[in-house]
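Schema walk-through. Below, the input block comes first and the output block second. Nothing else is stored per chain. Lengths vary across the set, and this one has 129 residues.
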Amino acid sequence: MRIGETAAAAGVSAKTVRFYEDRGLLPAADRASNGYRDYGQETVSRLEFIRRGRTAGLTLSQISDILAVRDTGQAPCVHVKDLLAQQLHDLDARIAELTALQATVAAYHDAAAAGDPAACDPERICTYL
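--- output ---
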């Protein structure tokens, strides 16, 4: 398959295919006699895996590590499970931070909505913050 067909089959752009190939996430494509890249179905599968990994919030470095394990012939399942567990932990922490931030901003907003700008203390930049 040419690069455009491969990209379409995997749901990515041709530019993304080139980028992943340059980064070493994809093996170098065979070249047809006319110089065009020629990809097989295994490249589509690999691109779909990379896309799913990115959707799960994994970095390209983490995905590269998973692919390196697979490329040695070993199943990377334990490594993937550990990465996903860490990702869940990090997301839970981020959600807690965002929830606290939301409460802070809501409190400031409520104070601003109930306040009277005419009663603002000229010695303070803004009494709402």
